Amino acid sequence: MVPVITQQRKIMKRKHIVAGNWKMNMDYDAGRDLVKAVADKLQPSDTLVILGTPYIHLRNAASIIKDISNLKIAAQNCHQEESGAFTGEVAAGMLASCGVDYVILGHSERREYFGEDDQLIASKIDAALAAGLSPIYCCGEKLEAREAGTENDVVGAQVEAALFHLSTEQLAQVVIAYEPVWAIGTGKTASPEQAQDMHAHIRALLAGHFGQEAADGVSILYGGSVKPGNAKEIFSKPDVDGGLIGGASLKAADFIAIVDSF
């Protein structure tokens, strides 16, 4: 009798990721001290930790953490062109040359204050991937969409516009951060159930376009007032793979406590 071989779908193990977004905070000395403090307190683990710093810290931060395998550096933005007469802008290739591995793109503050739309963000994702950087792509709804019950439609449109033109190989380099705009810097936090529902929705959208295996390999972070006191419960949800941390990333003890929530 010929044995029957049952094949099971292989699910890629997703990375647990805690990424800090310093925003426009920390002068050079304070930033150097914060990177050193995080590096000193961080324990070896399977959790990937990313520090998203202003441009002035990137090179020095990359030098400080170069021997720590689970600690990486992210920029907070990049320009969509490789080079040119764009005074004040920084190209993705320039970031890569400083030892940067990740770049935060599509953050709600870039959308709100600098007029970045889905088309521009998609072009920045392309530029980052071409330079060998992994985008941390941010998406999320405002309060009016949440109250109107259209949050799935809003986030779905953002994900489609930013990511659906990519190949599955390119998608594998992308991290997604769901940030309900109404919970950023307000002290409000989406419930763990609300976060799980949206993360599952995003993963289902990816599965419908790229296939389930590709979708299962994408880390989706929650970004909205994550603190040491609520991180463990939020991270316990099956489709929440970590967090994009704002204010709490500016204090080494708080940030490490969030990392340790895994």
TrEMBL record:
<feature type="binding site">
    <location>
        <begin position="21"/>
        <end position="23"/>
    </location>
    <ligand>
        <name>substrate</name>
    </ligand>
</feature>
<keyword id="KW-0413">Isomerase</keyword>
<dbReference type="GO" id="GO:0004807">
    <property type="term" value="F:triose-phosphate isomerase activity"/>
</dbReference>
<dbReference type="InterPro" id="IPR035990">
    <property type="entry name" value="TIM_sf"/>
</dbReference>
<dbReference type="InterPro" id="IPR022896">
    <property type="entry name" value="TrioseP_Isoase_bac/euk"/>
</dbReference>
<feature type="binding site">
    <location>
        <begin position="246"/>
        <end position="247"/>
    </location>
    <ligand>
        <name>substrate</name>
    </ligand>
</feature>
<feature type="active site" description="Proton acceptor">
    <location>
        <position position="179"/>
    </location>
</feature>
<feature type="binding site">
    <location>
        <position position="225"/>
    </location>
    <ligand>
        <name>substrate</name>
    </ligand>
</feature>
<keyword id="KW-0324">Glycolysis</keyword>
<comment type="function">
    <text>Involved in the gluconeogenesis. Catalyzes stereospecifically the conversion of dihydroxyacetone phosphate (DHAP) to D-glyceraldehyde-3-phosphate (G3P).</text>
</comment>
<comment type="pathway">
    <text>Carbohydrate biosynthesis; gluconeogenesis.</text>
</comment>
<dbReference type="InterPro" id="IPR000652">
    <property type="entry name" value="Triosephosphate_isomerase"/>
</dbReference>
<feature type="active site" description="Electrophile">
    <location>
        <position position="107"/>
    </location>
</feature>
<comment type="similarity">
    <text>Belongs to the triosephosphate isomerase family.</text>
</comment>
<dbReference type="GO" id="GO:0019563">
    <property type="term" value="P:glycerol catabolic process"/>
</dbReference>
<dbReference type="GO" id="GO:0006096">
    <property type="term" value="P:glycolytic process"/>
</dbReference>
<dbReference type="InterPro" id="IPR020861">
    <property type="entry name" value="Triosephosphate_isomerase_AS"/>
</dbReference>
<protein>
    <recommendedName>
        <fullName>Triosephosphate isomerase</fullName>
        <ecNumber>5.3.1.1</ecNumber>
    </recommendedName>
</protein>
<keyword id="KW-0312">Gluconeogenesis</keyword>
<dbReference type="GO" id="GO:0006094">
    <property type="term" value="P:gluconeogenesis"/>
</dbReference>
<dbReference type="InterPro" id="IPR013785">
    <property type="entry name" value="Aldolase_TIM"/>
</dbReference>
<feature type="binding site">
    <location>
        <position position="185"/>
    </location>
    <ligand>
        <name>substrate</name>
    </ligand>
</feature>
<dbReference type="Pfam" id="PF00121">
    <property type="entry name" value="TIM"/>
</dbReference>
<dbReference type="GO" id="GO:0005829">
    <property type="term" value="C:cytosol"/>
</dbReference>
<comment type="pathway">
    <text>Carbohydrate degradation; glycolysis; D-glyceraldehyde 3-phosphate from glycerone phosphate: step 1/1.</text>
</comment>
<dbReference type="GO" id="GO:0046166">
    <property type="term" value="P:glyceraldehyde-3-phosphate biosynthetic process"/>
</dbReference>
<comment type="subunit">
    <text>Homodimer.</text>
</comment>
<keyword id="KW-0963">Cytoplasm</keyword>
